[in-house]
Amino acid sequence: MSTTEAVAPAKAATGQRIEHEGLLDVRELKTYFKLSDGWVQAVDGVSFVVEPGQSLGLAGESGCGKTTAALSILKLLPENGKIVSGDILFDGRNLAKRTEYGMSKIRWKEISIIFQGAMNALNPVRPTGKQIAEPIVLHEGVSDAKAMLRARELFDLVGINPKRINDYPHQLSGGMRQRAMIAMALACNPKLVIGDEPTTALDVMVQAQILDLIARLRRELDLSFILISHDLSVMAETCDKGVIMYAGHVAESGTTTNIFDNPQHPYTKRLIKAFPNIHEKREMVSSIAGDPPNLLQPPPGCRFCPRCDDRLGKCETETPQQIEVDPGHFVACHLVA
Amino acid sequence: MAQAPTSTPAKKNGKGRETVDPEALRTATVTDGTLFQVRDLEVFFPVREGFFKAMVQTQKKYVRAVDGITFDVKQGEILALVGESGCGKTTTGRTMLRLEAATGGQILYKGLPLRNFSQRSLREYRKKAQIIFQDPYNSINPKQTIFDIVAEPLEVNKLVHSQYDKEERVIKAIAEAGLRPARDYLYRYPHELSGGQRQRVCIAGATVLEPDVIVADEPVASLDVSIRNDILKLMVEHKEKLGVTYIFITHDLSLAWVISDRIAVMYLGRIIEIGHTEEVVSNPQHPYTKALISVIPVPDPEGKRVHTILTGETPNAVDIPPGCRFHPRCPEAIDICKEAAPEDVHIRDDHYAACLRLNEG
After folding, report:
1. CB distance from A294 to chain B under 8 Å?
2. Interface predicted TM-score (ipTM) of this complex, two decimals
3. In chain B, what is the straight-line distance between the N-terminal and C-terminal CA atoms, in Å?
4. Quick check: A278 and B232 CB within 8 A?
5. Which pTM was predicted?
6. List of domains in chain B
7. Structural domains for chain A
8. In chain B, positions 284-303, which contact chain A (CB-CB < 8 Å)?
């Protein structure tokens, strides 16, 4: 942990510091994907703030835009993806307006990501340790030997025996690969780590180990963390704040206590009931009839309206605004107004 | 094994074993509501090794995927086989359909030993026992229409004689799987359907034969929550309305808890705890079950519980630890656990757990 010094923000390629809240302030972000028959409005006006040291969960069903929102922060979108408007303010700089070269200085050094499928995210023909050392050499300009030393420390930090530094990914178990991915994300002492479904496809016990590891590292290294997950239960257990997304919009956001103890949006309520709570009375989990809308031509008004049981007349035409029901607890629903 | 069956219910084959012919299978009935009796089942797979190792080695190595398990499956119940990867739950399910051969012990279906089924009995048996796989993207043929996919089992088994009859049965199965109106789906291709709809097609393909039992191998692991819950409801509906017995294989104990009647928790080829779902979950006895339940995330940020996180991972099934196979990871292990293998201990009703420490006072 010797190189924690951040680059002075004033030196950043795009010039001035911009005033904003927290460490990361995403404002009205719109990210669209171009297809042959139009633009898919995958993320359509999403705002949230991550405070230093805080963990924020982005949750929702597949296709709700949670991964797109995260990839927009790092500008790792596929070629047909484009940030159409909005700001991503990180530590005084607007990432939405930053060039690819400018981003390459921020990626991994200040914001890093843990990808979902550790087997696919690691290069199968290179030793794991070398892959962890690579960003250290690139960003810190140290020698290979020093970077490998740091990689060993990182292995130890995430609970893998440093002797296995030269193992290839296939020699590690699923849980260890995910640990190696975490080590890689921490290689350059970032301030913010994004976990894109970091425990999906892992066994329950291994999931518990990984979540425990992430919690410990957050405490020890004072990290900010964004967890992207379809699993509300995982979010409830690990995050301070939550953002529930539906079809490219934010349905509800607030502290996890706000969201789980006092959900206001009909979608949030239904989604929470879809997850079993093994410590409560046994009941059938509920499902939400219908499918999410096609985001090529999203319905006007509230996007959840076609599947909502409590819809009002104006839900079909007017897009609901974010309403603050409690301090810091926002809901986008006409029923609340 | 393939012998022409005669009218006598049992006939010896070349190895001196009595074969079960299709007639015996047709007339067999369920006694005491028990559809399957699995007794000391073992399924070992030989480990492939290089030439040199094979020459110097004195003992052949085996992956002991299933290593002596005994349980019953009652007619019309959902029995959940729960455990982490490599615990042998899938192998158990596949062996019950004779998709894998048992290397020891036996499985009785309606009192008839599965290993003695003749080829023709097996064909008959497979009309009664079906399987649903995890991945609805790879388990159906992308070049067939939904109608062809669901009709194929009927054709293969020569169960329909007219086009009309076939259509009727296919439409009924598709509607029962929750794709309504069924006629709208008949001539679509899998790529036109969502993941959940595809899984429903797989289910229709299994139920079109009106089976007694369906082995559902992680049927919801790759689906979104809302769709996942629909499929779980469908399984409960099939059980209640059609009397289908389900063997629900899952790694997710909380899903097993939601729909199953009984749960069998597996670890490294053994059943370590079995019993009524609510009893096992509310009163777990085996340290492994206790730990598993403690780490299941719940949608309640306030209800933070003490997580018993086990260290390490399930060892591989080639070098199984001596004594109780769970002892290296067990938070409650004592010296004796390293030597003695635990027997099933009766807790109450039909709740059993295999832990040595349950014998203490």
Report:
1. no
2. 0.86
3. 52
4. no
5. 0.89
6. 10-359 (3.40.50.300)
7. 9-110+190-246 (3.40.50.300)
8. 291-293, 295-303
